[in-house]
Structures are given as C-alpha cells and as structure tokens.
Amino acid sequence: MISIVILGTGNVAKHLYDAFSATNQVKILQVVGRSKEKLAVYSKLSEVSMDYGNIKEADVYLIAVSDDAVNEVSQKLADKKGLVVHTSGSCSLDDLSPIQRKGVFYPLQSFTKNKKVDFKEIPICVEAAQKDDEIVLKQLAHLISEKVFNISSEQRKTIHLAAVFVNNFTNHLYQIGSEICDENKIPFELLHPLIKETANKISVLNPHEAQTGPARRGDKITINNHLRLLENKTHKEIYSLLSNSIKKDYEQKL
Amino acid sequence: MISIVILGTGNVAKHLYDAFSATNQVKILQVVGRSKEKLAVYSKLSEVSMDYGNIKEADVYLIAVSDDAVNEVSQKLADKKGLVVHTSGSCSLDDLSPIQRKGVFYPLQSFTKNKKVDFKEIPICVEAAQKDDEIVLKQLAHLISEKVFNISSEQRKTIHLAAVFVNNFTNHLYQIGSEICDENKIPFELLHPLIKETANKISVLNPHEAQTGPARRGDKITINNHLRLLENKTHKEIYSLLSNSIKKDYEQKL
Ligand SMILES: NC(=O)c1ccc[n+]([C@@H]2O[C@H](COP(=O)([O-])OP(=O)(O)OC[C@H]3O[C@@H](n4cnc5c(N)ncnc54)[C@H](OP(=O)(O)O)[C@@H]3O)[C@@H](O)[C@H]2O)c1
Ligand SMILES: NC(=O)c1ccc[n+]([C@@H]2O[C@H](COP(=O)([O-])OP(=O)(O)OC[C@H]3O[C@@H](n4cnc5c(N)ncnc54)[C@H](OP(=O)(O)O)[C@@H]3O)[C@@H](O)[C@H]2O)c1
C-alpha cells in the first residue's frame, strides 16, 4: 500500500484522485487545496485541508497545481521525508528546488473537467532524482496505466513542444474550420466525423503516408481557389504557410 | 429497390460498394473500371466491366473516380436515362456538363484503404439539378447513413475548404510532431492518446472553449523556449504564426 497526499484541486488533481481511488493499492491520506468549495468534492472519502502548514506524512506527495505555483507549493514540503513529485509537462525536476527526494509524474494527456478518460491508455512519464524513487514512481504509475516511460526533463521539453503542435495548434485549426463554417451557415458538426477519423488514422498510417489534399497533390488551381475564398488575412497566411510546408515535404521525396 | 452502377474502383468506390451491399434495398448492377486486378474484388458478387461503352441501364450512376476524371467519365453516360452523380467534395454540379439528370453524393469523410468506417455516422451531402432527383439521392443516402444534408455546390466549396484545415493541415501538424519526436528519439506513439483526445473533445467543448497552451495563456517564456528548441525554419514560422493567431483570438475577447 502506497500512501499519498495530493496538493491542488484542479483538473489533474481530480483525474488522478479518481484513478488512484479506483485501485486498492493506494491510500489517499489527504487532499490539500486553497478552495473550500473545490475540496468539498473530496471530503466524503478523504481528509481535506486548506492549511499548507499542516500536511500529513506520506510516501508520495503529488503536486498538481498550476505550473507557476509548483515551486511555491514545493517549499511547504521541504521538511518531508516522502517523495515529492509534480505533474507538469513543462516544469523541470529543478523546479522542486528545496526538495531532496524529488520527481515528476506527468500524465501525457489533455484533461477536461467532467470528461472521463481511460487512464490505462494514458502514457505516464516518470523521472526521479534518485534511482529508488524512480522505481516507486513506476510502481505507482503502473497501478493506473499500462504505458509508463522513463523520461528525462530534457526529453519532456521536447514532448511538450510536440504536444503544442498536435494538441494546441490542431485545436486552433478546428477553431478556424468552425469559423469558416459559421461564416457560411454550415453546422460545424458536419466536420466532426472527419476530425475524429483524421486522428484515429494515426493508428494505421503514419502522418507522412496519411497526408492528402491539394498541397500534397500540388493542385495549384484548388489552392488558389481556396485562397480567394478565405477572407480572414491570418487564415490566408496559415493556409499558404502550411500548404507550402506540405509541398516541400513531398518534393524532397521525389 | 434502387439499381446502381458504380464507376471507379478506388477508395470511395470500394467503401460505397461495401456500404450499399450491406443493405438489401440496393441492387449493384455493375462496377465499371480501368483495371482488371481492381475489378476482381467485385467480380464475385457483381458484374464488372472494363468497357465504358457498355454500361448497363440503372436508376443511379455513381461516378467515384479522381476529380479530374469526373467530367471525362460523365461523357460516357450522356445518353443514359438514370441519374448521374459524382462523389467529390471539390467538383461542382456543372462538372457533369453533358448530363441532364445530374447530382452529387458526397460522403464527408477521409477514407483509407482497408480501414472500415461506420457509414451510419458519415454525413452525406447531396445535391441534384432536379427536385425529384434530390429526393432519390436522399433516400439512397439514408440507406447507409443517419446524417444526410442538402448542400449546394457553393456550400460544398466552403466545406471542402474547412476540411483542408481540420484534416489535411491537422495531419501535417501530426507530421511535424512526429519529426520533433524522431529528432529526439522519442516514440511518436507517446502522443497518440493526446491526438485522439484532442479530436474527441469537440463532442463536449467547442474549439474556442477547448483551447489551451502557452499562446492561449500568453506565456511568453514558454513560447520563446519553444522557438529556441525548434531547429527547422519552417516549423519555427508555423509555431509563430499559429501562436500569434491564437493570441489574437483571445485578446479580442478581453
Ligand atoms: N490540464 C491538463 O490537461 C494537464 C495535463 C498534464 C499535466 N498537467 C499539469 O498538471 C498541473 C495542474 O494542472 P491542471 O490542469 O490541473 O490545472 P487547473 O485545473 O487550472 O488547477 C490548478 C490548481 O492549482 C491551484 N493553484 C494555483 N496557484 C496556486 C498557488 N499559488 N498555491 C496553491 N495552489 C495553487 C489551483 O487552486 P485554486 O483552484 O484555488 O485556484 C488549482 O487547484 C500543471 O502543472 C499542469 O501543467 C495538466
Ligand atoms: N478519398 C477520400 O477520402 C474521398 C472522400 C470523399 C470523396 N472523395 C471523392 O471521391 C472520388 C474518388 O476518390 P478516391 O479517393 O476513391 O480516389 P482513388 O482511390 O484514387 O481512385 C480513383 C479512381 O478513379 C479512376 N480513374 C482515374 N482517372 C480515370 C480516368 N481518366 N478514367 C476512368 N477512371 C479513372 C481510378 O482508376 P485506376 O485505378 O485505373 O487508376 C480509380 O478507380 C473523388 O472525386 C474524390 O474527390 C474522396
């Protein structure tokens, strides 16, 4: 049985709380947060506290607060014997500066409030300053996920960068698609199946093979028609830049 | 019972053939194509022909050939009494110029060879020169899909443009993500669950609400770190342009 304390009451705190609660090998000793309302969700099944000066002794402390508060919260744990980890893709191990036994427990997923996820499929990237602690984190991660990876702070930076492209920027393309639909009174829902299939395709084809469309074919007529149709200047620029980037990828391979 | 002839033996022809074969209200009279090998797949259950001068009489002709061959193939059907439709998102009704009873039967999805799709969920956009024919196409579409829409050639152009953003360009962002991973010896598979969840989120949040990341937060430090990490000049440009576009969207709302 591994005992843990969760610090933070946001999205990631809640998803990890639920995932660990569903195993019977973790005892969640306490949830520590700033907001009484948010703590109420946890108070039925766990001890809760708003006092960062009164944190229980545990095997592992999970700091699941906003990136820029990770260091501040870690200060409150400086005298703890347990292993202190944050859950951030962009913070490094050093952001837990005052801590001796420190690590990272980063679930590589984009969580949404009230939207359940299947934790078994979520890659968990772990890192620890000490070898023994890495083993503890891997054990902990394996209780909720089948996909556990040792990832250094350096590698995590790269993953976070790639995630910005495939998650944040992709979502922005959905946003542009939805604006184009709105302007022309077409329900954006028409594109939902296409969006989902585009994402699901990565299981059977790598993106290089899966690429289709006018830029891939070098179809200048369609590209020019599209540029004429686009009214928003930024959307035009994005269309040109991405089309040229696709063209370049395939010209190189000829 | 509606009788149809399918012209073409590519991706869309095969998926439509399978979908219609699974209903018992359509009789596929003939599949017409240029390649003996490709026709072989159909010859067990249907008549096949390589002779475009010897096409059977049917209620509906589905032209599922490459966009730039749609007009050429339609010429061979000029004397038919049946309704002639193409399956293209980018061709207009007028590309079937020699035909009187003409229409469009456009399944709004990205098909992959050998990858099954659930046709029930695929929006089918229909259009016809004559009202009666539109009714026939809607009946036909409803046999395989629950989502059937009247979409004009003008609207279809817009949908195709939006689809380039959410499908072709999104796939290119996956490609960039996979290159960033490769360069740093990180398996791209790590990002698969994130990619799928990003797409699935559109069912519960619109893209404007779902947007996250450094540009959304106005986190200049992370943006500059990322630009420094990126070595590829085009990737840097794409990162800047999309980040600025996101920033602008949220500044406007302040
Ligand atoms: N969201 C994701 O999809 C995701 C995925 C993987 C990793 N992560 C990482 O997980 C961590 C938490 O993210 P999240 O999405 O759960 O954030 P969130 O939903 O915005 O929640 C942030 C939490 O941090 C608390 N907090 C903020 N500033 C604080 C401070 N100065 N002192 C104490 N508590 C503070 C907030 O408390 P109040 O409610 O009182 O403001 C809230 O409980 C971050 O490091 C993030 O990078 C997020
Ligand atoms: N792929 C998609 O996801 C998708 C989705 C919706 C709509 N569409 C539309 O559906 C149509 C077919 O696309 P597809 O993806 O099925 O294409 P595809 O897999 O590339 O197949 C193209 C077919 O067209 C035939 N063809 C090409 N030029 C021809 C010519 N001059 N005369 C006779 N046949 C010719 C090809 O014959 P050979 O095999 O002998 O070359 C092949 O059977 C296009 O209008 C496309 O825009 C495609």
Polypeptide structure, described:
The structure is a homodimer of 254-residue chains. Chain A is 46% helix and 15% strand. Chain A has 254 residues and is an alpha/beta fold. Chain A folds into two domains: 2-151, NAD(P)-binding Rossmann-like Domain (Rossmann fold, 3-Layer(aba) Sandwich); 156-253, N-(1-d-carboxylethyl)-l-norvaline Dehydrogenase, domain 2 (Orthogonal Bundle), CATH 1.10.1040.20. Chain A is elongated. The relative contact order of chain A is 0.08. Chains A and B meet through helix 5, helix 6, helix 7, helix 8 and helix 9 of A and helix 5, helix 6, helix 7, helix 8 and helix 9 of B. The complex binds NADP nicotinamide-adenine-dinucleotide phosphate (2 copies).
Short description:
Chains A, B: InterPro entries: 6-PGluconate_DH-like_C_sf, DUF2520, NAD(P)-bd_dom_sf, P5C_Rdtase_cat_N, TM1727-like_C_sf. With 254 residues, chain A is α/β, with parallel strands linked by helices.
Largest interface: A-B, 83 and 83 residues
Question: How many β-strand stretches of chain A?
Answer: 8
Name of the CATH class of the largest domain in chain A = Alpha Beta
Largest sheet of chain A: 8 strands, mixed
Helix coverage percent of residues of chain A? 40-55%
Can you list the strand order of the major beta sheet of chain A? 3-2-1-4-5-6-7-8
Domain Pyrroline-5-carboxylate reductase catalytic N-terminal (chains A, B): 4-85
Organism (chains A, B): Sediminicola luteus
Pfam families (chains A, B): DUF2520, F420_oxidored
InterPro entries (chains A, B): 6-PGluconate_DH-like_C_sf, DUF2520, NAD(P)-bd_dom_sf, P5C_Rdtase_cat_N, TM1727-like_C_sf
